[in-house]
């Protein structure tokens, strides 16, 4: 009777947790769908989503063997922490709509999952044992990971079957089931409930999880030997090949992968019982020799990362690479130190190392997700310094990277550069305006866009005299019709030409990009300016890098009648024929 009552109480608790999560996610969904607070405030969205996902899932995965109040003592502080980290991360996605935050959300989502997992297994171990034995920590980490993964798979299968049901009936013109199943008020409770059921099913299937563990351990036992041989063989040939070929093949990343896989396979193979004899004495020594040389891999990857940073400055990707390198260095150095000290018994130090380094990894992830160490701010400072050292060379400032990857710090830095730009940097201002204005620059100049039009006109080089004002108005309209293209332009040049030798002056517009160029011819026809695109007549690979300089120096030659072909430098262009669309 007692067992039945406690089971019923645990099931009711699980039901309440899943319903609370469903309600929270549904309210957030409806707020976004109805444009209601906090739909346009990413800081609150990130905060609430972090708490709505982390709190209930952690409660479910901690289990119901003990009173829920005990679990809440650990879950509530963790949920508050994720709420704070989510709020800070979301605040970096402002101003809303002017900052791209897809990459921000992806990186935060991944670190969020790792932090939640580490917090969960450390909490679960401490609740059960009042200290952190490595054997229990390993078992909980394995069971928690596969329980969560299989529960997600179960939830997706439930959703897939419902969609199959709805689609089958929709195919015979019965839309009722599709309308119901795709309604947020239906699928949020359903999916959170399915996830809760999946967690309960697999959390109690210890025999099933033990089978998976045994299979993985058997596989890793042989894969670890192969990977160790690859690692030692690779190091042995490096003195003969040198490091230069490695850098041309993504060498730093490959080296980090070797380190990570060796450490991962080692821990899966030896697991929580280092005294168990898995290999022969020779194989065991070969493996710890492979682990002992891992600091050499750390030195190689560090050198590769330093070369890239010295050449191109810091970036989000390189900073993450540095963090991963540092974590792997800690493990590699600790393992190598244990091997040098204990030799054949080095596995005795494995538990001590893993428990403490796991806590350090958790602390580092919390640190880089907080205001204390923001990779975006570090990247902005590095790239702005490179831009200043280049005497404001426009090619040294990738404003598209600032918008798409550096979120609010990138936006603030670019706006500061724009505010401090002088009259010689009109092209840079134009690119910034085009990238950070999602409706385009227009002649009517709505909402104070006059300064943007002035910058655009100032960016157009006219070395042979001022063109007609009617042409300039047409140019503003045409150039600003594609802000995505305008934000990549490195130079604009407008030159008078007579390309059909009819005595009427046309104007050649050259748009220079980093690795290409686009030419167009403006002709005055029927009292308005008509744009005729020019296409290069290509014979092999063409070099567009000096197209502006060639045109400004007068290196233009007409080559044929009708619309004459145009040669700029060593590249030949022809006017594209006008095509009339008949509806």
Describe the secondary-structure layout:
Blueprint: H1 2-33, H2 42-62, H3 68-91, H4 102-129, H5 134-171, H6 176-181, H7 184-203, H8 206-241, H9 244-247, H10 251-270, H11 281-292, H12 294-312, H13 316-342, H14 350-368, H15 375-389, H16 399-405, H17 407-420, H18 426-435, H19 450-459, E1 460-461, H20 469-479, H21 483-486, E2 491-497, E3 506-512, E4 517-525, E5 528-536, H22 547-552, E6 556-558, E7 566-568, E8 571-575
Parallel strand pairs: 1-2
Antiparallel strand pairs: 2-3, 3-4, 4-5, 5-8, 6-7, 7-8
Helix pairs in contact: 1-2, 1-7, 2-3, 2-4, 3-4, 4-5, 4-14, 5-7, 8-10, 8-11, 10-12, 10-13, 11-13, 12-13, 13-14, 15-17, 16-17, 18-19
- Largest sheet: number of strands, sense, barrel closure: 8 strands, mixed
Enumerate the spans where pLDDT stays under 50 for 5 or more consecutive residues: 438-450, 578-583
Number of domain units: 4
Helix/sheet category: alpha+beta
Rg is 31 Å
Tags for this model:
single chain; alpha+beta; 583 residues; 4 domains
Descriptive overview:
The chain is of the alpha+beta class and 583 residues long. It folds into four domains: 2-204, no CATH class; 209-373, no CATH class; 425-486, no CATH class; 490-583, no CATH class. Helix content is 66%, strand content 8%. It has helices at 2-33, 42-62, 68-91, 102-129, 134-171, 176-181, 184-203, 206-241, 244-247, 251-270, 281-292, 294-312, 316-342, 350-368, 375-389, 399-405, 407-420, 426-435, 450-459, 469-479, 483-486, 547-552; strands at residues 460-461, 491-497, 506-512, 517-525, 528-536, 556-558, 566-568, 571-575. An eight-stranded mixed sheet has the order 1-2-3-4-5-8-7-6. The longest helix has 38 residues, at 134-171. The model is unreliable at 438-450 and 578-583 (pLDDT under 50).
